[in-house]
Amino acid sequence: MAQVEKSNSEAAFFNYHGFPGHCCISINEEVVHGIPDKNRFLKKGDIVGIYTQKGEVVALAESSMSEEEIRDATKGYAFETRRIIMAPNTYPKKWRTKTPPPKD
């Protein structure tokens, strides 16, 4: 959230149809859109659902950073994909990345 505020931006999910969170993340046993909870923090190794901005879950990933590390990071990968769950060819091929992003 700090990086969003510094860049004078707004999180895509925040206040969308009244959604109270700045991100949509399902942690471990949650199976539907998770609303961040001030009393529950993401830990390294947690399994999370990855969502599109339309709210579609597309993958399951393992957190490679804790909530605090993600909050303080300015670059890097926060999650490692474990399973893609969106049907192949859901989106046009031209939307795919031509080259994989560089690893830090």
Low-confidence stretches: none
Radius of gyration: 14 Å
Could you say what the CATH architecture is? Answer: Roll
Helix content: 10-25%
The number of distinct structural domains comes to 1
Mean pLDDT: 77
Principal-axis shape equals globular
β-strand percent reads 15-25%
Major beta sheet summary: 4 strands, antiparallel
Instruction: Identify the CATH class.
Output: Mainly Beta
CATH topological fold name: Archaeosine Trna-guanine Transglycosylase, Chain: A, domain 4
* Number of DSSP strand runs: 4
The succession of helices and strands, N to C, reads HEEEHE
Terminus-to-terminus distance: 22 Å
Category by helix and strand content:
alpha+beta
Tally of alpha and pi helices: 2
Q: Which sequence of strands runs across the widest sheet?
A: 1-2-3-4
